[in-house]
Specification:
This protein is of the alpha+beta class and 330 residues long. It is built from nine helices and 14 strands. The radius of gyration is 22 Å and the shape is elongated.
Length: 330
């Protein structure tokens, strides 16, 4: 009841706006508790970083919200959906993907969302460690039980990636780019990455986890020398202050809608246009790394299965399902 009560209080205060006031009696009615219990909830929210003014004979007003992730505030911002996923939040976690996998294995209802401000064992593609020690970031994993054929999921990460880009563009008012297959970039520097993992047998994907790491803010003391040329954050490219809780709530809604569109097939009509909008590689000279093998060419986009299309030096066009792409040096 405690977390739900905090959510209801914050929803009431947010609906009232910056100048609005909500009476203690109204909050008590909403929660079905005493005025004393309302006061106790408000004190806990104040301890968590909320500035809630008490106005004599009028009620309460929310004047300052924390600039870090807070699960009750995320829930307060979330819009109603047909299916409301459970939200599992930690300030610090080993890996949000690992926790999502664990929850599915224990029978937790899907869909579910795991959020954290910091990871200690984050990982990216090809088993690489994901740099995630700095506060000011958002780590999220979304867990589903699709029960579909593996062949249907070939473009899943790409589809989810362009939707994340569209959400970022609406918040930052600056268009990011998606580097095939899973990196979100601004001006060639990485602001986020995605990783999809699945448990399947020969003809069915049973468990599916879509993981996402986003740099919301640069480190307080700046990027380290080894990251400065390669990393960036959303706030560095946003034309307005980025509210991390409002963004996290919008992200949850966008990912759930995108997943539903993918499963029912309605995504197919939208995917080509979104890919064209955010593809940061098309027409660029690149090198594709596959183990010790390097293939150079000019990117032509992707095929219907999500393979990268490369025009090679001899004029042939080849398709590649996997690999790591770097821009070729001029």
């Amino acid at each position: 009841m405690s977390a739900h009560a905090d959510q209801l209080i914050l929803q009431a205060l947010l609906e009232a706006g910056d100048e609005g006031v909500v009476s203690g009696a109204d909050l008590a009615r909403r929660l079905g508790v005493s005025r004393v219990s309302v006061w106790q909830h408000l004190e806990r929210l104040r301890e968590a970083g909320f500035a809630i003014e008490s106005l004599h004979a009028r009620g309460y007003r929310l004047s300052v919200r924390p600039d870090f992730l807070h699960p009750a505030l995320i829930d307060a911002y979330r819009r109603p959906t047909a299916i409301t996923p459970s939200l599992h939040y930690s300030d610090t976690i080993g890996s949000t993907n690992d926790e999502a996998v664990r929850l599915l294995a224990t029978g937790a209802p899907a869909p579910l969302v795991v959020l954290a401000r910091r990871q200690e064992k984050g990982r990216g593609r090809l088993g690489r460690a994901w740099h995630s020690a700095t506060d000011g970031n958002l780590y999220a994993s979304f867990a589903f039980r699709p029960e579909v054929e593996p062949a249907r999921m070939q473009t899943f990460t790409l589809w989810m990636g362009v939707n994340v880009c569209a959400l970022v563009a609406s918040f930052c008012r600056v268009t990011p780019g998606l580097k095939w297959p899973n990196d979100l970039l601004f001006d060639g520097r990485k602001a986020g990455g995605m990783l999809t993992e699945a448990r399947m047998d020969a003809d069915r994907i049973h468990d599916l986890v879509f993981g996402l790491g986003l740099n919301l803010r640069a480190p307080a003391d700046g990027w380290s020398p080894e990251l400065a040329a390669r990393a960036t954050s959303l706030s560095e490219h946003s034309n307005a202050p980025l509210d991390p809780n409002k963004f996290a709530a919008a992200l949850i809604g966008r990912v759930l809608d995108s997943y539903a569109a993918f499963i029912d097939g309605s995504y197919a009509a939208l995917f080509p246009g979104l890919w064209q909008r955010f593809d940061t590689l098309k027409g660029r000279a690149v090198t594709l790394h596959q183990g010790d093998r390097e293939i150079t060419g000019t990117t032509l986009g992707i095929d219907p299965e999500g393979s990268l299309l490369l025009r090679l030096a001899d004029g042939r066009t080849e398709r590649y399902r996997a690999g790591e792409v770097t821009l070729s040096k001029k």
